[in-house]
Amino acid sequence: MKQSFTAPSFEWRWVHPRYWLAWLGIALLLPLAYLPWQARWSLGKQLGRILYRYQAKRRAIVETNLKHCYPRLSEAERAAWTLKHLQHYAAALLDYSVLFFRSRVTLAKRIRLHLPETFKQAVAENQPIILLLGHSTWLEFAPLAIGLHYAAYGSYKPFSQPIFDWLIARSRLKDVEFVIPREAGLLKLVRSLKPGLILIFLPDEDLGLKASVIVPFMGQDKATLTTPARIAELGKATAFVSLAFFDETTGQYHINISEALAPYPLGGEAADATLMNQALEQLIALHPEQYLWLMKLFKTQSDGSNIY
């Protein structure tokens, strides 16, 4: 059922010296894929410390988000959470190596998929499903986990660096039936949503006020997409929220899926977006330091200000 998008083919122009830095990065990733997970995690922690110390802009984004979402944290606690977050972020980047270069059979041994009964029931009844996958540092392991057991598809936004785009696209197409270019639009996603298929959709970016509504998220007003509820309604799909986490004591990737959002949609954009955000908050609470606080979650402010 591969359709709608094929991974870019290798292009000989990529051997030009302008791409050598990218190839060097890939060459460094290859041996990382075969290190014990403990070694990659240790390297990721050290790289995270470097990011914390020298990437002031990224550190400031994380700290700003935490200050707004967890106002009771002391300055020292917020600094510790920021460091921990950047360590998970760096370790997840290093673990791209296993996605690129290790077999799915090998990776499956370290995947733990936590499914509620409502999800199992929806699958058993052959219902269309939309999985609202939130941005965690370990997000890329969720499509892998779903694709090991179910037929799934999603949208794809090409990366600006063509070599890494080639690798990432090839990796993602190992795990899903097909992907649809993001610019293809909402209707293409809905028309592809058939019984027995799972649409993986990322719902929690702040993309401005277009197709969004301002509702609470983590105690703050946030521009939240209305697209998920529209897809669920048009596709007659059951909706679930999901986040991926990493267990640093076992080296396992845990993909947690919420109970079905029901009833959903509720009939109002604000109510639908609020329900989704509440389900996402419950999953974030499991491992809050692993949510992607590097995103500018609140860049759309009603007064036009910039908190970042």
Q: Can you describe this structure?
A:
The protein is α/β, with parallel strands linked by helices and 308 residues long. It has one domain (12-290). The chain contains twelve helices and nine strands. The longest helix is centred in the N-terminal third of the chain and has 20 residues, at 75-94. The N and C termini lie far apart (43 Å).
Give start-end ranges of low-pLDDT stretches.
none
Q: What is the subunit organization of this protein? A: single chain
Please compute the radius of gyration using only Cα atoms: 19 Å
Q: Total number of β-strand segments?
A: 9
Average residue pLDDT: 92
Q: What portion of the residues fall into strands of 2 or more residues?
A: 15-25%
Q: Could you say how many structural domains there are in total? A: 1
Tell me the series of helices and strands, N- to C-terminal. HHHHHHEHEHEHEHEEEHEEH
* DSSP summary: helix tally: 12
Helix/strand/pairing category: alpha/beta
Q: Can you list the strand order of the major beta sheet? A: 1-9-8-2-5-3-4
Summarize the biggest pleated sheet: 7 strands, mixed
Question: In a nutshell, what does this entry contain?
Answer:
The protein is an alpha/beta fold and 308 residues long. It has helices at 20-32, 37-54, 56-69, 75-94, 96-101, 104-108, 117-124, 141-147, 162-172, 186-191, 227-234, 269-284; strands at residues 111-114, 129-133, 152-156, 178-181, 198-201, 212-217, 220-225, 238-247, 252-257.
